[in-house]
Amino acid sequence: MRKGQLLKTRKRAAVKPQGPAHTQDDPLAHKLLLRYMEEHFEWMTVTGYSLDTVRARRQAIRKFISWIDERGIDDVRQITRPMIERYQRHLFYYRKANGQPLSIGMQLQYLAAIKLWFKWLTKAHHILANPAADLELPRQPKRLPGRILNAAEVEAVLAEADPSTTQGLRDRALLELLYATGLRRSEAASLGVYDPDLLRGVLWVRHGKGGKQRVVPLGTRAIAWLEKYLTEARGELLAADTQALFVSDYGQPMRADQIADKVRRYMQFAGIHKGGATHLLRHACATHMLEGGADIRFIQAMLGHTSLETTEIYTHVSIDKLIEVHRATHPSRLERKGHDQAASVQAVADDAATMLLEALTVADDDDGGDEV
Fold this sequence. Notes:
three-stranded antiparallel β-sheet; 3 strands; 3% strand; 372 residues; DNA polymerase, domain 1; hpI Integrase, Chain A
């Protein structure tokens, strides 16, 4: 039995019965602004925004309404540009319970929701002028990932799932699929049992970010593990009629947070202690494909990125190839290689340099980006 295996196997416990639902009065229920918010969400739903987007916007706009309500305002026509700017400063200086500030990304999420809301309020003729029209949103810094898993580390994580057990077989299939396709955790949780086309070797992602759909290749190894899971494990785990591809130990569809927690545990078993577990596999998928010679635009389509600039952050040219370029081209190298070896190294250098220059070029051409 491998290290950590005792922690990964457990008996299926009885499902805890649901207690009576406790209803809590909404302190904003009587506010007129809340009615405008609900009308706005109805418009978003009708025009094709995903339920996840509406859910996130609801939290953001309610936070703003609560802040406005504390200042005695319930008429949307009384909200001015200086008020929204003061709210923006409030978000900047706000501190959470642990003393940490809101991230730039979270501030941007709150303010973008408000900006779209006021744009809709203007178009729906609830207000004459848009006070948030010229609001400058904070710029989110573009950072390279702090941790890159190499191929050996990924294999160590995959090997931690014990396929001799029903749960372990499911987990191995899940890990293989995440690494092969680069799916987000929410996309993996939304997969249906008929979304993998094992005969053609593709996966239909029908509920991607922003409601977008795409088709991604699976790879022979992921196909083999998925087929084994579907024929040997999924039926034993089922406790109710569900079309979900991955089901929990209790037979229910696996949620996104459950998938993330499971991947995190396997990474800890493999000695990798780093946040963003599923995201690490997503990034590893893209980086290893780039190192293998894949075009960055193919990776963009596979990851479901709207902007190529976003893909560049996740699929930066690996430092190993840059080292080869440096050794092959920089005049400070200690010795010159033989002609044949130098030609081979130069060929690798040319490929890496081409990818790097392409990435730099599109970075200048495309200033947009979506979340990863």
